[in-house]
Amino acid sequence: MSKLETNTIDTVSGTANLTIGSTNSSTVTFESGAVTGHNYPAFEASLSSTQSVSNDTTVKIQINSETLDTDNCYDNSTNYRFTPTKAGKYFVYAKARAQSSADNLLRDISVMIYKNGSLEIDHVFLLRNNYQRVITPSFSGIVDMNGSSDYLELYGKITQPSGTPTGFIGGSKHSLFGAYRIGA
């Protein structure tokens, strides 16, 4: 077996792909912990504690506890938004645990991902004839991002027939938001 040591491996001018191996089965091993592949930038964050909300009012869910943020693209303290620095398609996912103020009062819950301030993906649970106390909708989708100014935020709305909902429940990843790049 031979060993090749170099500082840079690059593609030939005018090409975009670097191929390792051609006819034989190839395995590439990277140093432990190295960032590789198309799945970056990536982040996942959760709601650290319960966020109180008003009844039937859309609010930004303040996802503030980062589990992963490969390229420092998620703002977990001010805007609660993901602004990736590399253009491409991103797999985006979220869940938000909603709780009413008492048993059998949760009527509807909407959880939405906004892109640049406009609705991009939404998920609505309509429980009008089967009220609940707690529900945790989760959903995912694919979003094109320009790698400079595009950003994503998580919003939600809880509706009950009377009173004020407890809100979106935090801790133990009951409510979370994440995304990662899946390709160009």
Q: How far apart lie the N and C ends? A: 35 Å
Structural shape? elongated
Number of domains: 1
**Helix-strand pattern, N to C?**
EEEEEEEEEEEEEE
* Largest beta-sheet details: 6 strands, antiparallel
Give the overall average pLDDT. Answer: 88
User: Per CATH, what is the topology?
Assistant: Jelly Rolls
Q: What fraction, in percent, of the residue positions are helical?
A: under 10%
Question: What is the rounded Rg?
Answer: 21 Å
How much of the sequence lies in strands comes to 35-45%
CATH class: Mainly Beta
Please explain how this structure is put together.
The chain has 184 residues and is mostly beta strands. It has a single domain (42-183), classed as Sandwich (Jelly Rolls). It is built from no helices and 14 strands. It has strands at 42-46, 59-60, 65-69, 74-75, 81-82, 88-95, 98-99, 108-115, 118-126, 134-135, 138-145, 152-159, 167-168, 176-183. Strands 2, 4, 5, 8, 9 and 12 form a six-stranded antiparallel beta sheet that branches. The protein has a five-stranded antiparallel beta sheet with strand order 3-1-14-6-11, with no helix packed on it. The model has no long low-confidence stretch (mean pLDDT 88).
